[in-house]
Amino acid sequence: MTTIAVTTWSLEQTAPTDLLPAAVPQGDVRVVRSEVPSPEFSRFLYASVGGDIRWTDRLGWTYAQWLEHLDRPGVETWVAYDRGTPAGYVELEAQDDGVVEIVYFGLVPAFRGRRIGGHLLSYGVARAWDLAERWPGRKPTRRVWLHTCSKDGEHAMDNYRRRGFRLFDTKVEEEPEIATPGPWPGAHPA
């Protein structure tokens, strides 16, 4: 099996004032919380956004696994819509002691390059900072973090840094090289 070297960068913000919001894109772009845990919708977002950049970790999840994950307190999915069509999403996961991870973030390929990503990331980070306000009993957020890797979109790292994230760790590991799965088996993303 062929392997590839994958660099993973971990980035963080440690105060709400670290966030440097992007401009709101022109047109009818809205970001809405998907409040009802929906394995079908979340899997659609995951496969549609990550299919061309080798997101495969969750493709084998069962319906029950998706539901269990989505139904946990402090897990939120925020979806960007461009004129009513899902354009991308950000998934937040509250962790212990006021830490929130941006577990997944990205755009469906057809919506990249339209200035939606910076806005969606800004919105998602702001929701990570105020997450405890929506989840009684959670400690206020004191740190927001994420990781990105060399397999992610070419503009991912620049977007994170422009939003005020700082690098705190870098790792390089060999991983099996896998085919790009696309949004569904047999699809050939553009």
UniProtKB/TrEMBL annotation:
Its EC number is 2.3.-.-. Residues 39-190 form the N-acetyltransferase domain. CDD domains: NAT_SF. The keyword Transferase applies. It holds the Pfam family Acetyltransf_1. It is an enzyme of class 2 (transferase). GO terms for molecular function: acyltransferase activity. It comes from the Bacteria. Gene3D superfamilies: 3.40.630.30. Keywords: Acyltransferase, Transferase. This is GNAT family N-acetyltransferase.
